[in-house]
């Protein structure tokens, strides 16, 4: 349940980043495109980690890699061993 809520919040974040980029928001909201670039860079590293560590656990490698890029750790957690 928390994963779904976290993924929904992540989608809202990406929607705000895209809107701020297109609309050219100023002030504090003007930082959203820069923050989005930083988060995208971190997600690229997470995709590389996913491909290196969990490639064999994926049933649809391309779709999982895209979801790891969009949602980051929230999608990557499903491949990690449970405690």
Q: What's the number of structural domains?
A: 1
Average pLDDT? 94
Rg to the nearest angstrom?
14 Å
Q: Structural class, from secondary structure content?
A: mainly alpha
Q: What is the strand tally?
A: 0
Helical proportion, percent range: over 70%
Number of alpha- plus pi-helical segments: 4
Largest sheet: none
How far the N terminus sits from the C terminus, by CA atoms, comes to 18 Å
Low-pLDDT residue intervals, each spanning 5 or more residues: none
Write down the overall geometry.
Answer: elongated
Question: Percent of residues in beta strands?
Answer: under 5%
Order of helices and strands: HHHH
Overview of this protein structure:
The chain is mainly α and 83 residues long. It has one domain. 71% of the residues lie in helices and 0% in strands. The chain contains 4 helices and no strands. The protein has helices at 2-23, 32-53, 61-71, 73-76. Helix 1 packs across helix 2. The longest helix is centred in the N-terminal third of the chain and has 22 residues, at 2-23. The mean pLDDT is 94.
Features:
single chain; 83 residues; mainly alpha; transmembrane; transmembrane helix; membrane; DUF1145 domain-containing protein
List the helices and strands and how they pair.
Elements: H1 2-23, H2 32-53, H3 61-71, H4 73-76
What's a concise summary of this model?
This protein is mainly α and 83 residues long.
């Amino acid at each position: 349940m928390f994963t779904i809520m976290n993924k929904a919040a992540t989608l809202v974040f990406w929607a705000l980043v895209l809107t701020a980029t297109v609309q050219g928001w100023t002030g504090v909201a003007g930082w959203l495109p820069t923050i989005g670039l930083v988060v995208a860079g971190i997600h690229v590293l997470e995709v590389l980690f996913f491909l290196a560590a969990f490639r064999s656990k994926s049933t649809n490698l391309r779709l999982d890699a895209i979801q790891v890029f969009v949602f980051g750790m929230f999608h990557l957690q499903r491949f990690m061993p449970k405690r």
